[in-house]
Fold these 3 entries.
Entry 1:
Amino acid sequence: MLPPRLTDDETRLLFLGRLGERKGSRDLVDALARLDSTLGWRMIMAGDGEVAETRARVAAAGLSNKVEVPGWVGAEYVAKLIAEADVLILPSYNENLPMSVIEGMAAGLAVIATPVGAVEDIVADGETGLLVAPGDVPALAEAIRRLLHDPDLRAQLGSAAAALHREQLDITPYVRRLVVLWRDAAAA
């Protein structure tokens, strides 16, 4: 069960993915350590991989009261985490098209990601999310800080992300585009 929000102004940050270097979870902990500890935020970093190492990194950074690392969670709990989050963060070094970003966008979350793989096909910096270079911990911290301080920007990015998902990533428009592609290929 998620801990209750400490205040109405508390911003819920979420990471979903394999904990470790490739998904940028180490950078994320380092970026969180750069934030003002009095800001109203909480982070949940859920996933498999380097769970114990991530918990140790969180503790060493003095963030145990702000960051929870539950490890792997099932689909039902993931849906609950997404429903209760405000921002999804995935600072990966290597991706194709990450499911967590797609799910976050579908739920209308503001997204912070890195421009790797096909991420830039759906996350346009400043429009449907914020992009930071892989490994740029100061920029990641600044992007998080920006969304913590600007609830209107969070709402705007989340709304645009949800609209993009409805228009391009939801199954119905996807199937329509696929049918057109197959018809065009068959006609050629």
Entry 2:
Amino acid sequence: MKLSSLIRSLRQFRSVHRWIGLSLVLFMLITAVTGLLLGWKKNVEALQPSTQPGRSSDLATWVSFAHVMASANRAMDSLTIARSELEKFDVRADKGIVKVIYLNHWEVQVDGQTGKTLSVAKRHSDWIERVHDGSLISDGFKLFYTNYLGWGLLVLSLTGFWLWYGPRKVRQRKE
């Protein structure tokens, strides 16, 4: 490659790198901040309540899901928290509990054997995860967001490498 074409390619790569970087900066900041929060979710009670221990991990001795749900609903009603629809049951057999998670991001931990409520707390990690992956807006946006970030970071990595390595090649050619 001639020196003039090498210098021209560096200018083009610098321009591509700049514009892709500018178009990605907000997405990268959001993803970085939410990623840091998600990395800490098991260590910070405000992000995700710690898992309480249940009595038994023997599923044969556990109460029914209907009993677990009734217990969770009573716990939510007693705190006068407007409960929403059930999002999921998170069964932690090894811990002896079932986490009942509602769409409004509240979690009730219920002992699998006794059916007693162990904990009621707000889960912030769920909505943070939805912001992190773009699904807070829609599944279509999530697909766009993750592809744009992924491809953008790949292009930034490649152009960044060339912007680091290219000037060394120019100096080498001039000598």
Entry 3:
Amino acid sequence: MRRARSARAGEIMEKERVAAFFDFDKTLLDDDSCKYGIQYLWERGRLKARWLAKLLVLHALYKRDLCSEEKMVRFLLTIYRNRRLDSFAAETEEFYRRFIVPHFAPNILSRVQEHKRQGHVLVLVSGSLRYLLEYVWRDLGFDHLFCTDLEVGPGGFLTGNPKDGLVTGEKKREVALRLAREQGIDLSMSHAYGNHHSDIPLLESVGHAHVVHPTRELEKTARKRGWEMLTFR
């Protein structure tokens, strides 16, 4: 009887685990890492002016919600087409230390540390790429990393397409639901942080949603639902 009761208590405790899901760009980071990545590659002569001009047009449309996040990310991934991942990965640590570390948002970074102190499961979930985010995941002590992987084609060359899809929009909700099932996480007690209206599916999945310098559409949703709004500092 005691063993059965103890086992049931253990199951209840496991189901009551709490997670904190963090988006990366313009949430944990106070800017867009892609902007710095493009600057870094341009300085090294690895981008063409025609590609950059098209990016500027797409970015202007994206800022006006006339271009989806998925379309924007898919275009950005064309940087990698017909190149090898190791040619980028070799420079990642320098890029990370120079551009990423100085731009961690202090207010959101303190939330990461507070969740860690409370023993919450820390989850970094982003459409950004694994070879960069692994540094963030390791340095900040996240428990799980869900992000976009690059597809490798024949001869070890990158195709410029994502492997297994982009971790954006509805995919983030799927990640949260799957992790909750596998890890016994109570999403009603869990937290999520995001900045873009494409993060709404993830934010809706938890009991405590927090928005960081939100887009106009996300701000409207946050106000209607009483979600906490945060600044970078």
